[in-house]
Amino acid sequence: MFAFVDTAPADQLNRGLEALALVETSDQPEAKSWEASVRSNIGEALYELGRYDEAMTHFRTALALRENGTNQNAIRDAHWQIARVLRNLGRTDEALAIQLRLESESAATGDPKYYIFEELELLYRDKGSMDRANHYVKLVKSFAK
Length: 145
Known about the structure:
This protein is an all-alpha fold. 79% of the residues lie in helices and 0% in strands. The longest helix is centred in the first third of the chain and has 17 residues, at 9-25. The model has no long low-confidence stretch (mean pLDDT 94).
């Protein structure tokens, strides 16, 4: 939870690495159950530091761990994190395919996510499709009401 207290990404990264060391050396199942969250937090700190390849490694590990569970929202969030990194690495088409799938899955569950729309806006801007980007701007604004 220090990731929420420490606001500087470097501090968040240090706390995350400390937590990961504890998780990895623990023989307690409850401690092990935190690995996906810890890796996600480390990935976020690395993302904020612009260390995208390292962030991707942690996000992919977190996804693999999440896929062993049953929390579909957590699995979708892990895919969202990976797609966001892909966008920043210039892999727009891969990121777009993931975000569009996440949009569809979230809509099917009746739980659309504004942050998926934000990413879709950015992706369509990157592709030069301003009409599609503006569509997602409107969707994001609908959450602010």
